[in-house]
Each structure stands twice: as C-alpha cells, then as structure tokens.
Amino acid sequence: MTTLAPTEQSSEKQITHKSEHGDYRLLGLITFLVADGMTFAGFFAAYLTFKAANPLLPDAIYELELPLPTLNTFLLLVSSATFHRAGQALKLDKTKLCRRWLLLTASLGIAFLVSQMVEYFTLPFGLTDNLYASTFYALTGFHGLHVTLGAIMILIVWWQARSPDGRVTSKNNFPLEAAELYWHFVDGIWVILFIILYLL
Amino acid sequence: MTITVPQTNKQPSEKLQPTGWLRYLSFSLDHKVIGIQYLICGFIFYLIGGALASAIRIELTSPVSDFMARDVYNQVLTLHGTIMIFLWIVPVVNGAFGNYLIPFYVGARDMAFPRLNAVAFWLIPPAGLMLITSYFINGAAQSGWTAYPPLSITTPAAGQIIWIISVLLLGGSSIFGGINFIVTILKLRRPGLQLMQLPMYCWAMLGTSILVVLSTPVLAGTLILLSFDIVAHTGFFNPALGGNVIVYQHLFWFYSHPAVYIMVLPAFGLVSEILPVHCRKPLFGYTTMVYSIMAIVVLGLVVWAHHMFTSGTPPWMRLFFTIATSFIAVPTGIKFFNWVATLWGGRISLNSAVLFSCGFIINFVLGGITGIALAQVPFDIHVHDTYFVVAHFHYVVYGGSVFVIFSSIYHWYPKFTGKMLNENLGRFHFLITFIGFNLCFGPQHWLGMNGMPRRVAEYDPQFTFVNQLSSVGALLMALSTLPFLWNIFQSALKGPIAGDNPWQGLTPEWLTSSPPPVENWKGEAPLVSKPYGYGVNKEESTMESVDDAQGDNNS
After folding, report:
1. Which residues numbered 322-361 in B keep a CB inside 8 Å of some CB on A?
2. What is the pLDDT of residue B526?
3. DSSP state of B282
4. What is the pTM for the complete model shown?
5. Quick one: closest CA in A to B243, which residue?
C-alpha cells in the first residue's frame, strides 16, 4: 500500500525529500467500518419498522429460545478478549503465545458459526415463512457472513505470524491490528443485534 | 500488506506504470491518470445516456407510443436515469475532478490509498457494461432508477437483478472513493497547511465523502433485501407476503436524497474554484462557504421523506421534513449570494468556463426555487410524479452539475493536456447548451403543473405542442455535444500550447507543469496558504515554498 514511498532525488546535492506519509490504513479501515455499520443500521431500522408497522398474526409469533444465542454472545465476547491478548503478546514479541491466542480466537469464532447453524436447523420457521422470519435470517445471516470473513482473516494473520521475520511481527502488526478492530466491530454489532432481535 | 520498497533512485510509481495513452487503459496508481480515466469513462456513458434521452424525447413528440414499445420505453427510461446518475455525474464530479485535484490541493503526491483508488475506478466499466448489455440479452430493468417495489418485483427479474448488481458495484466504488478522499483531505495535507486554508473544493469533497460513507451502505443493504425478494421470494417489500413497500422508500431515499448532494456539492466546490480565477477576485465569504457545506451535509441526511409526501406519510413526518427541507435553502442561498458577490465588481473574462459557471448559477437558482416549492406538502401533492418534478430534477442535476462539469473541463483542459481549447467554439457550445436546456426543461414545469405524469410513454393530446417544444430543446442539447467533441479532439492535436498557468491561477495545480509530472512536483510541494489571493499584493499571495532555493534547483 505504501506506493508513496520515499521520493529520493538523484542529485547528490540534495537532501532526501521525505514525502512518505504516515500509515493511515487504520483510519481508512475505521471509515470503512463506519460505512459497514451503516449497512447494519439500515437493516436494524428496517427490522424495527417492520415490527412496528406489520405486526404478525398471533399464530405466527414464535418466542425465540435464549440459551443458544446467549452462549453465542458469550463466545464472541470472550473471543474479543482473546484477540486482545494476542495483540498484547505480539507487542512483546511473544510470537508463539500470540499465535496460540489467535488460534483460540478463530476457534471461538468458528464455534459461534457452528452454534448459529445449530440454531438455524432447530428453528421452526424458514426464510420465506413470514416477514419476521425473513428479517431474522437476513440480519443473522449478514452478521454470520461478517464472522466468517473475520475468522478467515484471523487464520491468515495466524499463518503470516508463523516466523519471526514474516509478514506479521511486532514491528509490522497492522494486519493483526486491522483484523482485531474488525473483529471487535463484528462483536459490537452482535451485541446490538442480540438485544434488538432476541431481547426486545 | 506492506512491502517495504527498497530505496532506489527511480521513483517507485514510475516503474509501475506504462507511459503514453496506454496508461489510461492500465491499472494505473497515478491519481491524475485515474482522474482522467473517470472523466473519459463518464463522458462515454454520458453520450450513451444522452442517446437514450433522445430516444425518450423522440417518443414523446407524439401522444401515442409509436417510436418504441411501452416496455422498451420503460427500459430506456430506467437505463437513462441509472447511467446519468451512477455512471456519469457521480463518478465525474467526485471521481474525475476529485482524484485529479485533491492531491494537488492538499499538497500530496497521490491519494492516501492509490491501489484502492484504482480498484474503485475499475469497478465502474464492468458495472456499466453489464447494465447496458442487459438491455440486449433479456431486457433491462423497467422500474426506473428508483426501483420501487412492487414494480421492481413484478417486472422481469433478470434485468432487475443485473441492475441491482451494477448499482452495488458502483456503490462500492463510490464508498472506496469516499474513504480515500476523507483520509487524504484530513491526513495528507502538506505540513503547515491548515484546514481553513484549503481550496473550497476540498471542503466540498470532504462533505460529499461523509455523505457517501454514511448513506451509500444503506442503499446497498436495501438492494440486497430487494434482490432476496426477487430471487428467494421473501416478502420484505412485497405486500402480498406481508411486506412493507414504504420501508423500501425510506431506506432508498435515505441514500438517494443525499445522492443529490453527492452530485451537486462537488459542483459547488468546482464553481468556487473557477469563478475567482476568472474574476481576479478572492472567493467571497470563504468561512460561510465552509459552514454552508457542512450544514448541507447535516441537513441533507434528514430530509429524505420529502420524496414520500404521497406515500401515506403521517402528518408529523410531513411537517418535520417540510421544515428541514426548507432550511436547506439557507446554506444554499448563502453559497449562491457568495458566488454572485465573487463576480460582483470583478474583472470577469467571459470565456467558456465562466459562461458555463454563470449558466450553472442561473439554472441552479431556478432548480432550487422549484425545490423549495416541492418541499411544501400541499404543492407537492399536486405535482407529485408529474413533469414538474422531472423539470426540477434536471434543473438541479443538468443545469447544476453538468454545466459545472463542462465549465470545469474548459477550465482544467489546459492543465490536463497542456493545450488550449478554442474559446469561440466553447462559447458557441455554451449558447446552444443553455438555450437547448432551458427550452427542453423549462416547458416541462408547465406540463407538470397541468398534470402530465412522468415515466409514461403516452399522454393526453392537449400536451402535444409543449412536448414537441421540449423535444426541440433536447435536439439542441444533443447537437451541442458536437462542437464540444470537435473542440476537445481538435485542440488536443492542434491547439495552442497552454503553458503551466494560462489563467494565472493561484491554486497549487497551476504551480506545476502542464500536464503535471508523475508525483506532481519536481521538488517540494508548494505551500499555498491563500488559494484565493487575487487582486492583493503579489508577495503575500503567491506560493511560499519552505525552501525556495531547493524548489528552484529542481525546476
């Protein structure tokens, strides 16, 4: 990404012009996450409006079971903490420890996805049954897509951190930082989703 | 992600890029090449969209549908709207001029994320091609650029799905561009350059990019839900399955009203760059201009439901959105008076760039006034979905944005190519565009007030004469492209050499060669603290390079 690498003048009289700018990839990512958050905001707004404007018939109402989604919330919150630990370990150059935490985080993410699948298969309604069912699957599915992408990213970072002079080191921890920020974002969205979809 | 480039004498971006005209077909990372790519690509789509508009006007010369079948008319109408908005105005006022000018204005050598920038551009041609080919394969989408359900759910699905994919790609391109502009303007400023010293176009692009980042994703989410309705037969927006069409309208206009500002705010910025140069006066009211832009950004996000006054909107909502919409007239009015005050008492050279800018001011005031009228519920209910809305909209986006695009091409062509355009041909181009435009869209106000509905191929015979008048205007507009194209090609080949700064401009892009070198400046980027210091002491106003001697050595 750093194509604005140093512009060095060939004439020996001149001092090297340091036109290289700082690393703003994280700010770019934050801006992107704001945009991504707006997609979810649109979905949430649609869901809440549907709920207010198109009430379901009494026989279509189904009370969602809480244990599994609560477990899911727990899995994701713990995974945020383990990811944080991975970042701390990398800063201290403890690569092995960092990779162990990363693997744990990815496993928690995958466990979330498996548990979500279990929930999908045990629910008594399908995608096209009614408006509520469609919105439920659209929201959780779109979030699940984010978790899937996040888990893949974590595994890539895990792979890239395998050697001390590889792509992810304490000096170049942007890939890890970016994936971590994204992961916290996805967790945050889940908490809102959990409250809106299951508790409200 | 980061590959540390070993420090060599050769500049890294030079090695990556082919030279000559071929670089315009390459995955170039140079912001200037990407800017021109946006411009040329956009203009090709403008010609296609214009041809479609001509087809519409030919059809409407007679009250019966004789030139094309009704469903073909719907497709042409949909393609015209989508192409003109998503493939011509949005990419050109943002992508083309933004990419070309913003790095100069902030004193950077490129955008913050050059690779993302190139990706953003290269999403556009495939999206556009897909959209146009859909017409020849299964028939294009028929539900207008708004794709309102249930129309978009009941019309043939293939075209509609292709339309959705295209718009999603274009939206993605737009978001990537927006992220890039925000980071570039906020973070890549040359050391010592304050935010309040930036040329106005930077502020316009900052505001626009905020709108892009906040509103485009909502449209993307909405269109994903719509595609579920079409493909998987869910019922989000299908009343037959318990869905709610009004929710679609809310979500759609949450993007598409800000989209109007995404099209017109950059145009405001460009006019603010062009007028001071050719009037030799500082831009009037810089600070108020900045605050007006930010006010428009904030207000622009909370006025969307004024498109839905006839959608069973509850009274409190009508009241709120009428008031919020009327408030937008205040910052817009401030900008209008500032432009007039910039012109006032200036030494105006009436060249093509200024003529198009003045044409913009006149047209935009007319479009703005009808906009205020449309924000009032009783009036809006009378003219909703009539040609009055068509006229208003075209006064804003054609009379506004497109006039500014032409003005900007006349203004920056010497910088782009190093050649001057033929001014007389340019003035002639302005004259027929201005007459043609007003002849085409002016009478449509009357048509709408008298009840001619929009988006229909047939109409009541009493409207025949006025429609023919409008079509004559459209013909003039179509013809006006010819002198322009001739001028562009002829001047590129045989035009007089422009020199670095033909207009004696003070903004940074004029302080380098024409066309500018890769990485913009041979030496250090100049610090331009007074981009509008016209008509004041020269020592105070021109570039103050931190180490002047060094800059001289390089040139």
Report:
1. none
2. 87
3. P
4. 0.90
5. A131
